Amino acid sequence: MKVTEHLAAANGKTLISIEVLPPQKGKTIDDLLRVIEPLMEFKPPFIDVTYHREEIIYKKRGDGLIEEVPLRKRPGTVGICAAIKGRFNVDTVPHLVCGGFTPEETEDALFTLHYLGINNVLLLQGDSDKNPKAANVKNKAHRFASELVYQVANMNKGKFLHEETENEMKTNFCIGVAGYPEKHFEAPNLNTDMKWLKHKVDCGADYIVTQMFFDNKKYFEFVDKCKAAGINVPIIPGLKPIAQKGQLSTLPRIFHIDVPEELAEAVEKCADDKQVKRVGIEWAIQQSKELKQAGVPCLHYYTMSRSEATIEIAKAVF
């Protein structure tokens, strides 16, 4: 089923979904499946699997020179989605990004997903290119997520690259995109960011999943702004509990988000990360309860492929 079909079938009930990372290269999938298994108690109708671009590592050659080697540390998003779908009989949502792929390579990946019976995708601009030798691909790749949305929406109509006529076969992807309650870091202001989000929806996006946030007020204001801009697709809030004191600085720096003063002060008072984890879980529980009471369509948890905190939050909320 499509994500939007799951949301519609819930008849106003708030669902739960989770997001996991592919295992690091060289690790088996078994640990990831063990993370997911206890979360199936809460019946998530779909599970997101992130995509990670290749980056450059430097290896010393036998002649003493340093060689640049491209490496993808967490490969296998498509295969992992198929494995999770087969193991748990749950729909999966692979993430696809713009950079690092030509439109032709993207089309081939989408055909693979279609043949596997995976009909949900979350389309993202993706991280900046860490491979300086990918210039030729970069020049041909989509620059913005809206362009990727447009390509997938065309495939749903039977319009493929380099084809002059509409094809008999059509894909059937439900298209998700990212939304930023505190604006995308590249946008000069929230209103401009809202304009581009509306453009993604107009290009064919079916639903929105937000960047993590710690202040529900920002989510509610974001939803109101979306409605005022004519964005009427479901907006799923994304949540992540703080687990380490160091995240007070790393999360704002990496994700360009604010940590509320009350939460920051509570974390600062903690003697160790065990206490921080407790504070983060309790904060996320209160966030979740308020959002659920407000009737959000789904609560989406960024698990980072760890289940303990999400299990505790879900037991308190669902």
Explain what the structure shows:
The protein has a single domain (3-317), classed as TIM Barrel (Alpha-Beta Barrel). It is 42% helix and 18% strand. The protein has twelve helices and ten strands. The strands form two sheets. The chain has an eight-stranded parallel barrel, surrounded by five helices. Helix 6 (145-156) packs parallel to helix 7 (190-203), helix 10 (261-268) runs antiparallel to helix 11 (273-293) and helix 11 (273-293) runs parallel beside helix 12. The longest helix is centred in the last third of the chain and has 21 residues, at 273-293. It is globular and about 60 Å long.
Keywords:
318 residues, alpha/beta, TIM Barrel, eight-stranded parallel beta barrel, two-stranded antiparallel ribbon, 12 helices, 42% helix
| Shape, principal axes of CA atoms | globular
Low-confidence stretches: 132-136
Number of discrete helical segments:
12
CATH class: Alpha Beta
Structural class: alpha/beta
Task: Briefly summarize what is shown.
The protein is an alpha/beta fold and 318 residues long. It has helices at 3-9, 30-36, 77-88, 103-115, 135-140, 145-156, 190-203, 216-228, 247-255, 261-268, 273-293, 308-317, and strands at 15-20, 46-49, 55-60, 66-71, 91-97, 120-124, 174-179, 207-212, 235-239, 298-302. The chain contains twelve helices and ten strands.
